[in-house]
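Researcher: We plan to redesign the surface later, but first we want a full-length starting point. C-alpha cells attached.
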C-alpha cells in the first residue's frame, strides 16, 4: 500500500482492511474471502484511490468485496471474482469519475452484484 502522509489504515474488529485518506493504492495479490452481511474485504474512504485486484475475490452472504467512497477511484480487476447471494457486491464505488477495468473472470450467481455505484 502506498499513500500520502495523511492516510491512515487499520484492521477493524472483523479483520477487514479500512483505509482513510486520499491518493491510496492497494495491491491485493492473495485470495480474499468475504462472507456475511456487514463485512467488507477492502474499504477505502478518500479520493483518487486505486485498487489493483490481482488475486481471487470471493464474496457471499451479503458482504462487499471492495468498497470505495470518494471521487476519481480506479479498480483494476485482473484476478477472478465470484459473487453469490442477494445483497453481495463485488465492487461498490460511491463517488464521481470512477473507472473499473475488468480483465479477470467473473462468476455472479444467486442474486449477487458485480459492480454497484
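Model: Full-length starting sequence:
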Amino acid at each position: 500500500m502506498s499513500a500520502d502522509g495523511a492516510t491512515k489504515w487499520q484492521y477493524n474488529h472483523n479483520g477487514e482492511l479500512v483505509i482513510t485518506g486520499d491518493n491510496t493504492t492497494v495491491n491485493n495479490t492473495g485470495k480474499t474471502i468475504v462472507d456475511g452481511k456487514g463485512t467488507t474485504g477492502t474499504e477505502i474512504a478518500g479520493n483518487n484511490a486505486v485498487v489493483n485486484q490481482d488475486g481471487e475475490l470471493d464474496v457471499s452472504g451479503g458482504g462487499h468485496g471492495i468498497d470505495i467512497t470518494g471521487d476519481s477511484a480506479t479498480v483494476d480487476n485482473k484476478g477472478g471474482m465470484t459473487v453469490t447471494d442477494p445483497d453481495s457486491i463485488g465492487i461498490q464505488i460511491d463517488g464521481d469519475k470512477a473507472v473499473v477495468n475488468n480483465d479477470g473472470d467473473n462468476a455472479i450467481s444467486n442474486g449477487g452484484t458485480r459492480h454497484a455505484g
